[in-house]
């Protein structure tokens, strides 16, 4: 499904096409290249470009390319014709030219036109789409068709589907290596997070077409969760730079949950999410409350160690207001260079439910939850150890158990997202002194 350019030249034009390929190697290398046999070999020898060599022209190479134009992803044919000599396979040549016209594929039969086509391609952004066909509740095939209809007229779109053997993270590495101008992730938060994780520090913009159950990252950044609107945003090219984070060795863009949240995510399996959508998480959370328990916790922030009992610890880089357990500070700011930490210390199920209602209030009012048994603060780095060890979920995936070290990577990710109605820096909530809020003794 990669956008393909076909290159062909008659014998007395072979030097021209080899030099052309050498000159435009940086642009041509972004595409899948096919060629008739001898032309392909000459191009490879001169430019070292990767090129699929089909049969030689007189043996059917032109006909093979015509078939690709008719059925494949050929976006241009560059066919340097010798106008002064007749060819034995003239009917094949005419068939190829005709098929290009039938399918309205750009066709250059001399160098000047070839250069015009390439100059035009150089202006197009090259987008690598990583599409997870098993995300969410929708119809993946229809979704992909719609995405193609919306994006292809304006982007060169290289589409790659995730499979059990090709993870989103692997595809993201391939996307970076391909030199794409833009990498688009389409799937649930797991897919978006894996692709984003690979892009941290790369400055390559990440486009998001959310098709998952919660779509927390898209919602947190105001990215539409409707496919059409998400594609329009991608075409607008408006970017925002936000923070990323790292939890032990794992990239993190949303949040890490220790205790309650991790157990809840584990309960809400894919089958339940497919059937019930977001309700699956709510039901799992309610069931989890019945098994409410606390664990001994040791936190290290800015070199200060503190102990407390906790039932749930949430450390967020970005989160929508609906991620209630992350709302201790009233909002999670995605570009403040800090992580929002919310620790619920309630001993009983009733107290825990009461605290969750307060977190809802905090999210609605965008103000820190003011209760003694909910600890909240902002920090750039935190270490958490627990007794007994607790499961840790990062961006929806269980990554192991405590201890964990989580660190914010300020301005680590460039995302195609609506510009936020941002507050000036001096209006942002101040960094809270951890020891004041925790109210516990230093080591
Ligand atoms: O004959 C050709 C096109 O019609 C070119 O074929 P070769 O690239 O194999 O020489």
TrEMBL record:
Pfam families in alphabetical order: DAGK_cat, MGS, YegS_C
Keyword Transmembrane helix (UniProt): no
Domain of life where this protein originates: Bacteria
Name of the protein: Methylglyoxal synthase
A GO cellular component annotation in the UniProt record: cytosol
Keyword terms of this UniProt record: Lyase
SUPFAM superfamilies assigned to the protein according to its UniProt record, in alphabetical order: Methylglyoxal synthase-like, NAD kinase/diacylglycerol kinase-like
EC number assigned by the record: 4.2.3.3
Summary of the function given for this chain in its UniProt record: Catalyzes the formation of methylglyoxal from dihydroxyacetone phosphate.
Record bears the keyword Lyase: yes
CDD domains: MGS (cd01422)
MGS-like domain location: 1-145
GO MF entries: ATP binding; kinase activity; methylglyoxal synthase activity
UniProt domain DAGKc: residue ranges: 122-251
Gene3D superfamilies the record matches: 2.60.200.40, Methylglyoxal synthase-like domain (3.40.50.1380), Probable inorganic polyphosphate/atp-NAD kinase, domain 1 (3.40.50.10330)
PROSITE patterns: DAGK (PS50146), METHYLGLYOXAL_SYNTH (PS01335), MGS (PS51855)
Annotated stretches, region: Disordered: 423-443
Family designation: Belongs to the methylglyoxal synthase family.
HAMAP family recorded: Methylglyoxal_synth
């Amino acid at each position: 499904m990669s956008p393909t350019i076909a290159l062909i030249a008659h014998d007395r034009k072979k030097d021209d096409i080899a030099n052309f390929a050498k000159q435009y190697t940086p642009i041509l290398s972004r595409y899948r290249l096919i060629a008739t046999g001898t032309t392909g070999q000459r191009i490879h020898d001169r430019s070292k470009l990767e090129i699929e060599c089909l049969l030689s022209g007189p043996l059917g190479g032109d006909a093979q390319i015509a078939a690709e134009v008719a059925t494949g992803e050929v976006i241009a044919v560059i066919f340097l014709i010798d106008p002064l000599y007749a060819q034995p396979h003239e009917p094949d040549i005419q068939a190829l030219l005709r098929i290009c016209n039938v399918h309205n594929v750009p066709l250059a039969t001399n160098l000047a036109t070839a250069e015009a086509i390439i100059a035009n391609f150089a202006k197009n952004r090259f987008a690598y789409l990583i599409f997870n066909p098993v995300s969410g509740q929708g119809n993946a095939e229809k979704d992909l068709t719609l995405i193609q209809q919306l994006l292809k007229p304006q982007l060169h779109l290289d589409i790659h589907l995730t499979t059990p053997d090709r993870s989103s993270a692997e595809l993201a590495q391939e996307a970076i290596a391909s030199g794409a101008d833009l990498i688009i992730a389409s799937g649930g938060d797991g897919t978006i997070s894996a692709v984003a994780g690979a892009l941290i520090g790369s400055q390559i913009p990440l486009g998001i077409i959310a098709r998952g159950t919660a779509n927390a990252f898209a919602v947190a950044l105001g990215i539409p969760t409707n496919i059409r609107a998400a594609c329009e945003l991608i075409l607008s090219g408006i970017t925002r730079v936000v923070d990323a984070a790292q939890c032990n060795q794992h990239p993190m863009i949303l949040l890490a949950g220790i205790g309650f949240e991790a157990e809840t995510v584990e309960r809400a399996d894919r089958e339940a999410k497919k059937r019930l959508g977001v309700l699956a998480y709510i039901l799992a959370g309610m069931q989890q409350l019945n098994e409410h328990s606390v664990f001994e916790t040791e936190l290290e922030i800015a070199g200060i160690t503190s102990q407390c009992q906790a039932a749930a610890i949430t450390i967020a880089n970005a989160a929508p207001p609906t991620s209630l357990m992350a709302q201790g500070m009233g909002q999670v700011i995605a570009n403040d260079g800090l992580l929002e930490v919310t620790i619920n210390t309630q001993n009983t199920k009733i107290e825990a439910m009461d605290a969750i209602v307060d977190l809802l209030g905090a999210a609605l009012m965008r103000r820190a939850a003011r209760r003694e048994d909910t600890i909240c603060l902002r920090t750039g780095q935190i270490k958490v150890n627990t007794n007994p060890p607790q499961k840790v979920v990062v961006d929806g995936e269980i990554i192991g158990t405590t201890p964990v070290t989580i660190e914010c990577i300020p301005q680590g990710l460039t995302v195609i997202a609506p510009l936020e109605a941002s507050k000036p820096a001096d209006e942002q909530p101040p960094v809270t002194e951890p020891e004041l809020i925790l109210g516990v003794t230093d080591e």
